[in-house]
TrEMBL record:
Biological-process GO terms, alphabetical: phosphoenolpyruvate-dependent sugar phosphotransferase system
Segments passing through the bilayer: 22-44, 64-87, 142-159
Keywords, comma-separated and alphabetical: Membrane, Transferase, Transmembrane, Transmembrane helix
The encoding gene: srlA
Protein name in the entry: PTS system, glucitol/sorbitol-specific, IIC component
Record's GO cellular component terms: membrane
Organism of this sequence: Anaerostipes caccae (strain DSM 14662 / CCUG 47493 / JCM 13470 / NCIMB 13811 / L1-92)
PANTHER family linked to this entry: PTS SYSTEM GLUCITOL/SORBITOL-SPECIFIC EIIC COMPONENT, PTS SYSTEM GLUCITOL_SORBITOL-SPECIFIC EIIC COMPONENT
Domain of life assignment: Bacteria
EC code(s) of this entry: 2.7.1.69
Length: 173
């Protein structure tokens, strides 16, 4: 009888923990994302959707810019997870590669711009603690982390684009 009671209590506790996590989202990340979306959409409306679209389309015409400059701008100005919304400016066939570039950049950016992805800051601080113990500069680490991140997002974007286009049978126009 006690086993059934413990199992029932454990089952309910699982949902209570889920509810606590959900309330954390409702009072934390969801309002943040809604405010960021509102602010970004307001700025786009003020500038003019056509202008922003034209700029983004020009920017995304070139693969190098599509998988470096656009994700960098998105991550620095919007942070994680809002940076993915800039994918709306990318042609449908390039969206998976754009997403891959953004996902790959939200970690290397934390050394110079911790606001972009504070959830990953613990990784960078762990690495930088080891660098500090060696007596080396963490500023240099942050810059190298950023540069390598840009190189990696370009490579990943280009590779993901080619893989996606081959898998879907689409051509690169």
């Amino acid at each position: 009888m006690e086993i059934i009671s413990n199992a029932a209590n454990g089952f309910i506790k699982l949902f209570q923990e889920g509810g606590t996590t959900f309330m954390g989202w409702v009072t934390g990340i969801i309002p943040l994302v809604v405010c960021l979306m509102t602010a970004v959409n307001s700025v786009i409306k003020l500038i003019g959707e056509e202008r922003v679209e034209r700029f983004a389309q020009k920017l995304t015409r070139f693969a190098v810019l599509r998988y470096t400059l656009l994700p960098i701008i998105a991550v620095l100005f919007l942070g994680n997870p809002m940076c993915y919304t800039f994918g709306r400016f990318v042609d449908e066939k390039y969206k998976p590669a754009y997403y891959d570039s953004c996902v790959s950049f939200v970690h290397p950016v934390t050394g110079l711009f911790p606001h972009a992805n504070p959830g990953e800051l613990f990784v960078y601080t762990g690495i930088s603690a080891g660098i500090t113990k060696l007596g080396l500069s963490i500023g240099g680490l942050a810059v190298r982390y950023f540069i390598v991140g840009v190189i990696v997002i370009l490579i990943r974007g280009l590779l993901t684009e080619q893989i996606y286009l081959r898998m879907t049978g689409k051509t690169n126009k």
